[in-house]
Amino acid sequence: MDLKRRLFLKATLAGSTIAVAAVAGLLKPQQLLAAWPESAFTSKSVADALTAIGGKADHSASASVTITGPDGGIAQNGAIVPITISSSMENVSRIFLVVDGNSFPLTASYELPAGTLPFITARIKMGKTSNVIAICEAGGQLFSASTEVKVVAGGC
Amino acid sequence: MSSIRIVAKVKSDGVCEFKALMKHPMETGLRKDPASGEIVPAHFIREVVCKHGDKVILNANFGITMSKDPVISFHFKGAKAGDKVALSWVDNKGESESEEGEVK
Which of A40, A60, B63, B73 could form a disulfide with B19 if both were Cys (CB 3.0 to 4.6 A apart)? Predict the structure, then answer.
């Protein structure tokens, strides 16, 4: 059996699985792509990114938001920095993860429908030592917490 | 085998913990290939949607600074063992993948 035919069959089958998923309404690529807030993710300052995505640049530090970085606040490898964000507030609708020292500070934004709790973990890239900021949107206000992560080897 | 792994488990307090790993290069578009010296084009997941049955339980947008093979984990209410959960992503090239899992 020649290899090309096998590969072709494999590719065709994989393609059809995606097509079925699309019909089932699981995937709506066009709708999804339109929603990605490009201006926020390409902003070079924290304030610009927040204005683009959160509607305002100012956020107030709050004890009801918690952010945890790697053990001891030290990331040996900047390419994989574990971050955990949580909040004691019940009405958090969105969470923004921002790295102050990265060229493009906005790293991720999460929309939490009712029933989803304000608890998120992620692994991010960091170019150098900087503050990592978690910003929770609740009732139209932005509440934040930040933690400094020391990066031994940059990973951008 | 899918490039997405989902683990969803109801904890003792009734809250479901959803964890997923997406296999993806997450190229920033800023990195040079050490061998050729050429810039490696950007290729990264931009949008992720997680569902519990038909209900969206998390919408996430990623920038270029999420790690290679990104992970997502969060907690949601109202799930019981045997329920279906799903995750789908779309990247900047318009490629997409999705996977279903079962709550344990």
Answer: B73
Question: B89 with B48: CB under 8 angstroms?
Answer: yes
What is the model's pLDDT at position A23?
Answer: 44
Query: Which chain B residues are closer than 8 Å to A121 by Cβ?
Result: 71-74
CB A107 within 8 A of CB A99: yes
Interacting residues of A42 by C-beta distance below 8 A, sequence separation 6+: A104
User: Domain spans of chain A?
Assistant: 2-32, 38-153
Task: Output the six-digit token pair for A3.
Answer: 């290899």
Hey, are the CB atoms on A109 and B61 less than 8 Å from each other?
yes
Q: What is the pLDDT of residue A24?
A: 47
Put simply, the chain B residues between 19 and 58 with a CB less than 8 A from any chain A CB are 28, 30-31, 46-47, 49, 51, 55-58
The answer to whether residues B32 and B38 touch, using CB atoms and an 8 Å cutoff, is yes
The residue with tokens 């020391």 is: A150
Q: Label residue B49 by pLDDT band (50, 70, 90).
A: very high
CATH (residue range A38-153):
2.60.40.2470
User: Out of B68, B71, B98, whose CB is closest to A121?
Assistant: B71
**B47: which 2 tokens?**
């949008």
The C-alpha atoms of residue A130 and residue A27 are separated, in whole angstroms, by 36
